[in-house]
Task: structure prediction
Amino acid sequence: MPAVSPDGELGAFYEALLFVAERPLHLDELAELGGVSPAAAAEQLAVLADDLAAHGRGLRLQRLDDAWQLATAPEIGERLAAYASREEARLTPAALEALAVVAYRQPCTRSEVERVRGVDSDYVLRSLLHRRLVTEVGRRDTPGRPILYGTTFTFLERFGLTSLEELPALPAEAALPEPADAALPEPADAG
Result:
């Protein structure tokens, strides 16, 4: 496929493509569809993100790892609240607590969420999955192969974030304990 040119046209192409896409698109896919290298696609996506933010537009470009999508600008969220409240109920304190553990620790297992919260988290994780705020991102390579959870684009949208790097830093007293397998001591030297 020939490259979309000039640069402004590639940016417009990516904006339209991400607008009609029914799912987040990965950088390699965007590069292929634009007929450019992944580096050129990433550069154009950064220009598009800056342009959307700088001109007070109603959309923002969100990135999660190497996937991209268009989302509503956080600053107009209040005006859209009436529409959004029709579809989604408020999150309970338990759901917010579990969601925070997943957001800061991801990928993490249900048992890691339960260890931090101190209570069973099966129901609350199912609720977060149903609301598309978390998703299964894989399986841990340990006995039982527990499911690993991570946050979604819906999470970023609901909390007005464009990427996970925008999560506020945790104060030292709120630091999450290390996963059990990461805290195991090194074996003693038999020598």
Notes: The domain at 7-76 is CATH 1.10.10.10 (Arc Repressor Mutant, subunit A). The beta strands are 25-26, 59-64, 67-72, 134-139, 147-151. The longest helix spans residues 38-54.
